[in-house]
Design goal:
0% helix, five-stranded mixed β-barrel, 81 residues, mainly beta
């Protein structure tokens, strides 16, 4: 899957103890990519998969994320690049 950096428009309050993939919606812009976290991130909540086109890749030990942070994302739609 293509990996790009993006600016996250949402915050994520949890510190990661292990690697975490957060379901998200990515959009291209003239100056790069933007991404927003979709609601319903619990493993049992699959509703957020409906609009999901990217995964935010947070490494182990990543601190809580503030809106406006640069993150690494995996684009699920290869034609988007």
């Amino acid at each position: 899957m293509p990996r790009v950096n993006a600016i996250c428009s949402s915050s994520y309050a949890k510190k990661t103890g292990s690697r975490r993939f957060i379901r998200a919606l990515a959009s291209p812009r003239e100056d790069g990519w933007t991404v927003s976290i979709l609601p319903g991130q619990k493993p049992s909540m699959i509703r957020s998969l409906v609009d999901c086109n990217a995964l935010i890749d947070l490494p182990p030990g990543h601190p809580p994320m503030e809106a406006g942070s640069e993150v690494s994302i995996l684009l699920l739609d290869r034609s988007a690049v």
